Amino acid sequence: MTDRFAPPPATGCRNTPVLKERGQHEVFCGLTGIVWLHRKMQDAFFLVVGSRTCAHLLQSAAGVMIFAEPRFATAILEETDLAGLADAQEELDRVVHELLARRPDIRQLFLVGSCPSEVIKLDLAKAAERLSAAHAPRVRVLNYSGSGIETTFTQGEDACLAAMVPVLPKTEARELLLVGALPDVVEEQALSLLDAIGVGPVRVLPAQTKDSEYGIGPNTVFALTQPFLGDTHAELTRRGARHIPAPMPFGEEGTTRFLEAIAAEFGIGPEVVARVTESPRARAREAVRKVAEPLWGKRVFFFPDSQLEIPLARFLARECGMEPVEVGTPFLHREIMGPELDLLPEGPRLSEGQDVDKQLARVREDRPDLTVCGLGLANPLEAEGLATKWAIELVFTPVHFYEQAADLASLFARPLRRSRALAFEEADT
């Protein structure tokens, strides 16, 4: 384990050549982001304009019980819509008017594009503008694409947050914006730490309700809590806000460096951060030490999937003693990932994009101890004797900041413990 107070490595991976992969994709639908976003934004509703397959995906992924009234639904595109025999815009207006009449609690309505709506070139931006004017000021209607066509499933959140930024009011106030949907308990920890350090006022995107929103302006600084928010980063920058480069708050080290970067922006020294975080840092280090034993000295291979890959590889290498063999990511945003690349020890291949056949060939040649990949690749690789970790679980599980550091390490340790147990059972028989 790298000591937290040791200086960064003299040479990280910022200048490592990146292998550009452009081939067959194995991606999970961007509509999946609705599963966590609809829980986060309490007055929002997500209306997917898509097919019955879209509806089945969301129902299955969210696990909504039949007696619950969720805050998402699918406006089904029928055969007449797809064939251009019906006025899809007129039908969409009807569905939205009926929905808003039945659900007066909705203050924000997102029209979410899907593969079918994009294939027939349905203009949801035009629809959102028209419907927002019709239902203002009670309801704000926005649109974004959650299509699974050559996107990753985390891009759904990025597209949603990016759609919200242009409509936020302008402000001259000096404020910190934390960007990225976090579970409530994790968000509360982050806000409590920042308050204790003396940083404020702090806003969050997405806010829980439309009424609790804020402005954006030239005195706004923002820190990303998720590495996949490239479009949101661009929209905030366009509004005049300034990004605070920092590692993602994964593990004890990442969280401390994240807080130090924010504190420095507000003129607060690292000694204040060290004093405030002494206890949670110690708890995180000890908790990770207890669960990371199966990871020490093991080799890990990341398929491109969620855009969490580089921060996770840094955490596993520096705090859990693993050796990253290849770190693949769907998109490598240099400005966002720069602090992570500086900390990631030299050695692994870096790849951007996807070419499944080539990556499968490399993982079979490397034979890593653990492979992090999508659900579609996990079972075939397990059948070949490779231990795997589902990448999607790393998005659905609370893994940010100090109190979740051990949970993050456990997600990787569990499949190795399982493999070891199975090997013992086979040896006994």
TrEMBL record:
Q: In which pathway does it act?
A: Porphyrin-containing compound metabolism; bacteriochlorophyll biosynthesis (light-independent)
Q: Which organism is it from?
A: Roseivivax halotolerans
| Matching SUPFAM superfamilies | Helical backbone' metal receptor
**What protein am I looking at?**
Light-independent protochlorophyllide reductase subunit N
Family according to the record? Belongs to the BchN/ChlN family.
Asked if the Swiss-Prot or TrEMBL record annotates the protein with the keyword Nucleus, the reply is: no
Pfam families linked: Oxidored_nitro
Q: How is the cofactor bound?
A: Binds 1 [4Fe-4S] cluster per heterodimer. The cluster is bound at the heterodimer interface by residues from both subunits.
Which gene name does the record give?
bchN
Subunit structure as annotated in this protein's UniProt entry: Protochlorophyllide reductase is composed of three subunits; BchL, BchN and BchB. Forms a heterotetramer of two BchB and two BchN subunits.
Positions annotated to bind [4Fe-4S] cluster: C29, C54, C115
Q: What is the top EC class of this enzyme, as a single word? A: oxidoreductase
InterPro entries given in the database record = LIPOR_BchN/ChlN, Nase/OxRdtase_comp1, Protochl_reductN
Which positions make up the signal peptide? none
Task: Please list the reactions this protein catalyses.
Answer: chlorophyllide a + oxidized 2[4Fe-4S]-[ferredoxin] + 2 ADP + 2 phosphate = protochlorophyllide a + reduced 2[4Fe-4S]-[ferredoxin] + 2 ATP + 2 H2O
Q: What is its EC number?
A: 1.3.7.7
GO BP annotations of the record are: light-independent bacteriochlorophyll biosynthetic process; photosynthesis, dark reaction
Q: Name the job this protein performs.
A: Component of the dark-operative protochlorophyllide reductase (DPOR) that uses Mg-ATP and reduced ferredoxin to reduce ring D of protochlorophyllide (Pchlide) to form chlorophyllide a (Chlide). This reaction is light-independent. The NB-protein (BchN-BchB) is the catalytic component of the complex.
Essential cofactor(s): [4Fe-4S] cluster
Q: Where is the Nitrogenase/oxidoreductase component domain?
A: 29-412
This entry's Gene Ontology molecular function terms read: 4 iron, 4 sulfur cluster binding; ATP binding; metal ion binding; oxidoreductase activity, acting on iron-sulfur proteins as donors; oxidoreductase activity, acting on the CH-CH group of donors, iron-sulfur protein as acceptor
State the UniProt keywords alphabetically: 4Fe-4S, ATP-binding, Bacteriochlorophyll biosynthesis, Chlorophyll biosynthesis, Iron, Iron-sulfur, Metal-binding, Nucleotide-binding, Oxidoreductase, Photosynthesis
